[in-house]
From TrEMBL:
GO cellular component: prefoldin complex
Keyword Chaperone: yes
CDD domains linked: Prefoldin_1
UniProt cross-references to InterPro entries, sorted A to Z: PFD_beta-like, Prefoldin
Annotated GO MF terms: unfolded protein binding
Pfam families named among the record's database cross-references: Prefoldin_2
Keywords for this protein: Chaperone
SUPFAM superfamilies given in the database record: Prefoldin
Protein name: PREFOLDIN 1
Similarity comment: family membership: Belongs to the prefoldin subunit beta family.
Species annotation: Zea mays
Biological process terms in GO annotation: protein folding; response to cold
Length: 157
């Protein structure tokens, strides 16, 4: 009876872990797992780690965009209003008024800041959820060593 209760609890925790992983994937798209990972536990841990790394990479990318926009704005501020300014479109340079370029860079800066804040909030929330689920699974497996042996003997198809 206790064995069935532990198994049901593990299945519920497994479901929560999969849901958390899916939410992390929505925040940071993940390349599918390689077939070389056969253990269920290894797949979960490696998948969550990969999602976290991709999310951090996206945040660094947005930080770079923010810095470029800020530096461009600083350079544009120093120019007189009658200066010819050009916007790159692919390999072509298009003459644009300084005000248009200035507004575009301000928009990029604001977009980057809001994206970074959103990603950080999502990352914090999902990492908290992930930690709670991992602790619950760890406690469950410590309570029932038989269940732990069963899980470790399973292979992912």
């Amino acid at each position: 009876m206790a064995d069935d209760a532990n198994r049901a609890a593990f299945m519920e925790l497994q479901s929560r872990m999969i849901d958390t992983t899916a939410k992390i994937k929505q925040v940071a798209p993940l390349v599918p797992f390689s077939d070389r990972f056969h253990r269920f536990r290894s797949c979960l841990i490696l998948g969550l780690f990969s999602c976290r790394v991709l999310l951090q990479t996206q945040m660094r990318s947005k930080e770079g965009e923010k810095k470029r926009a800020y530096l461009t704005l600083e350079e544009l501020r120093q120019l007189p209003d009658d200066t010819n300014t050009y916007k790159t479109v692919g390999k072509v340079f298009i003459l644009e008024p300084k005000s248009v370029l200035f507004n575009e860079q301000e928009q990029k800066l604001n977009d980057s800041e809001s994206a970074i804040a959103s990603m950080q909030t999502s990352k914090d929330y999902l990492e908290k959820q992930q930690g709670e689920v991992e602790n619950n699974i760890r406690e469950l497996l410590q309570q029932d060593p038989g269940l732990a042996r069963q899980i470790l003997s399973m292979t992912v198809q």
